[in-house]
Amino acid sequence: MTTRSISVVIPVNNGERYIRECLGSVLSQSLKPSEVIVVDDGSTDRTMELVRAVNRDILCLEQKRLGPAAARNVGVEAASGHYLAFIDADDLWTKEKLALQMGHLAKNPTTDMVFGMMRQFYSPEVDEAFKSRYACPDTMTPAIHPGAMLLKKETFLRIGPFDASLKMGEFIQWQARAQ
Fold first, then answer.
1. Are 103 and 6 in contact (CB under 8 A)?
2. Which of 8, 61, 80, 155 could pair with 33 in a Cys bridge, judged by C-beta atoms 3.0 to 4.6 Å apart?
3. What is each CA distance from 92 to 118, 128, 155, 161, in whole angstroms?
4. If phi over 0 gives left and psi between -120 and 50 gives alpha, with beta otherwise, what is residue 129?
5. Do the beta carbons of residue 132 and residue 32 sit within 8 Å?
6. Which pLDDT tens digit goes with each residue over 17-48?
């Protein structure tokens, strides 16, 4: 399949526990992204050292702690791809995520963005007390979530950046503007 380029943006803060696995899921895509951009949001751990050890071709950007919205915006500014995909440093993609979504966009050229499915999971360090308080169904569900989205960069730029003044809910606010 001939495709236009995909830029993957990964905001991270103190993600040394998960970043290698996240990057592994991005770099092992059946449809390879043209670039991976990791934006370190003021980490105080070894996150960026680990990122650089995984692959020297990853674009590594650093900023003081401003939150994930600001980090995503910095990644978008640096992105050269025609399409954008976001993933949080503690999330994983299935191998076919980008291929399936680009396939849909190729067949539907007037579509601006596409979302996929997601399966929630508990982090390995979560104890039973936490699990008893927070439900985490082991089923695939439709996801309106940045990590489940692939969109045209021109669409993102038309809608505008994530609101970096919001420390939570910035994607909900962005999606409302998109609609």
1. no
2. 8
3. 10, 22, 24, 24
4. alpha
5. no
6. 999 999 999 999 999 999 999 999 999 999 99
